[in-house]
Design a protein that fits this description.
This protein is of the alpha+beta class. It is 18% helix and 27% strand. Strands 1, 2, 3, 4, 5, 6, 7, 8 and 9 form a nine-stranded antiparallel β-sheet that branches. It is globular, with a radius of gyration of 20 Å. The two termini are 24 Å apart.
Amino acid sequence: MKIWCAGLALVVVAGCGSPDATPADTTAAQDVAATASEYTAQLTALNAATVGSETTGDVRITVLGDSLTIRVNVRNAPPDMSHWQHYHGFADGREAACPTSAQDANGDGIIDLIETEPVSGTTMVPFNADPVKLDIPDESYPTAAADGSYSYEKTVSMSALQAALGGAPLALEKRVVFIHGVPDSMTLPGTVASLGPVPAQKTIPIACGSLDVVAP
């Protein structure tokens, strides 16, 4: 019981650690602590006319104790290449949303990464081989098969991820997930902006979905 009180519990129970706690109280608290919280997102296509396909998929994030498991399934992405994937949001706690054609501020017919920021926020956590490192340009992202599909699964320490983010709450229900990337050989207009020196082909959004809490 002492360990449960000190850890990242999902709820706070009055009287935790009290010498008056009964075995029934202890069992009930352990059952609550063992309950997973889940967040899901349905990915819908962005920039499909440029990409040449409607990229879709789904995301599920499960929090159980100190474990946070990320699962991503993607379909119809540009094949035989790796795809950057992250969740985006606002550090001040505002709710993020996926962009629409209204975010194509320069009217070039493409919603680029920079144009998503007013509604989607900035890149926060990468879904690559080591999300806790927060190494966005790392090249360990998943690779789509010849049919454009891929699956990704990774479990990390929730407390370590929170520490990497400066201790702020993850607020997953206020985040959106992006899938990025078209082949390096694809020619994009010079108006398509990217992040620093990173080619726009790597950062162009091809799908997005808002994370929602799964009702218990």
